[in-house]
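Please, structure for the following, as tokens.
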Amino acid sequence: MKKTFNKTIKKLKKLQKKLNNPKTIILLILFFLALTYFKRLIFFFVVIVISIAAAYFLGMLQPPIDLSPFFFFSIVTSAAMGIKFGLIYYFIGAVIPWLALGGRIDASSLIYISMNSFFIVLSTVLTKSIGLNIVYLGILMIVIQTVLGLIIKKSLAVPVPDIIRDITGNIIVNLIYFVYFGNLFFNLLK
């Protein structure tokens, strides 16, 4: 017991020496100032990094349903920070990684990009004009996305089993994101 106590005291003394170093104190002050004044931007970049990592790992794993947080983060980012940041997130955090992993621009991807841009604008308008809660906004966006996705997939003659798998997976995954993480990320970005 005494050895553990002595080790703890030695570690605390080392930490105290580091904290007495002016460089360490300046770095800590700068870190807390940045966290205070640039919290939104720091978490915005964290969201982008999460999305890029998700794009990479999901591109490698290729799961049968879409597990990506792109729709979730684009809605939350635009609702909390506005259309400009929503679109910046979407292109840096979703479109560019998708292209880097071998995605290509064709008619269906342009429809998808346009539809997500529409959701970014709509979520910003609904949040700013009527103050819609992020969870309810997410559920509304999921419903609209499902209806539009169903129409688009039917018009592109996608097989019915694929439509059912895609839409069901999309609804479940995005509901989980919005219900469990919506308020957390919205408040971090606001």
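The chain has a mean pLDDT of 87. The longest helix spans residues 160-189.
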